[in-house]
Amino acid sequence: MELRVRFLGEVRRQDLFGRFGIQAAAASRDLATYKDLAPGNLDYDSKNKVYVRSDLFRPVFDFPPARVLAWLTRGYGDHEPTKQRPLVPSELAAEINDPDLEALSVVTRAIHRKSAVQISYRAVSSGMTSRAIVPFALADSGSRWHVRAYDRRSNEFRDFVLARIADARFDGEPIVDEELPEHDIQWNRIVELELVPHPANMRNPDTIEAEYGMTDGMRVIRVRAALVGYMLRRWNVDCTPDHSLRGGENYLWLKNRQALYGVTNLVLAPGYNESISDRR
């Protein structure tokens, strides 16, 4: 309940029916229990028959950002925030760039409501800036989380690193047609990438074929154009036309480099330098 209220801004009894398979009376009791635990956190919208986040909302439960993002994007872990004993011993790489949960909650509620937000954003090139964005999706680059949004400052769709958002609040300005996600060409375009074992670096290509689940020596991946650069960097895919990167981390080579035509974030792609032939 608190996850939905905090990060989506609302909760209905039907949400509890669908998640837990309980009856109406049990859902009403659970809502009443939460209101006892957190008086002032919920307001009831009688017109739409939904409990909404109040202006006095204060979280009762403490969730790690990684768990919140997993729930938001995959639906995992939406139960009480207790430590679970792992089924097998395991360790995860340390997270060193967690987003601010309150700023995240504004962004995710804006996505859910289809609203604009004002953010204070720390950019590498320009430092702290203020801007209005219209967010519509979260994206994981493999090393950090972004929000995809229309940026009213630059008048284009961009990625914003969640951990760089220092403050966020709702913007009352209505969304106009060109700010809607269907106009984000890079987000809506799907690129097919043909990945093969690196011809120069791999003495035993069958090892790479097995590891990456290749068929006939190739793995075809379909990726949104907006995420192509992140994907190629994450897996250290050599994007040179002549597979000339010799790093020990370059296990893969992009066979169909022409598929990158028109993709805008290729500065992230290992070995990619736009040539005259690429621009034609």
Query: What's the SSE pattern?
Result: HEHHEEHHEEEEEHEHEHEEH
Share of helix among residues?
25-40%
How would you describe the oligomerization state of the chains in this entry?
Answer: single chain
Counted by DSSP, the helix tally is: 9
Total beta strands: 12
Report the portion of residues in β strands: 25-35%
Gyration radius, in Å? 22 Å
Morphology call: globular
Short description:
By secondary structure, this protein is an alpha+beta fold. The protein contains nine helices and twelve strands. A hairpin with a 4-residue loop joins β6 and β7.
What does this structure look like?
The protein is α+β, with helices and mostly antiparallel strands. It folds into three domains: 2-61, Orthogonal Bundle (Arc Repressor Mutant, subunit A); 101-184, SH3 type barrels, CATH 2.30.30; 189-279, no CATH class. The protein has helices at residues 2-8, 13-20, 24-37, 65-74, 101-113, 185-188, 205-211, 228-234, 276-279, and strands at 10-11, 42-45, 50-53, 116-123, 127-140, 145-151, 156-161, 165-171, 190-197, 219-224, 237-238, 252-254. The strands form three sheets. Strands 7-6-5-4-8 form a five-stranded antiparallel sheet, covered by helices on one side. The chain has a four-stranded mixed sheet with strand order 10-9-12-11. Helix 2 (13-20) packs across helix 3 (24-37). The relative contact order is 0.09. The model is unreliable at 276-280 (pLDDT under 50).
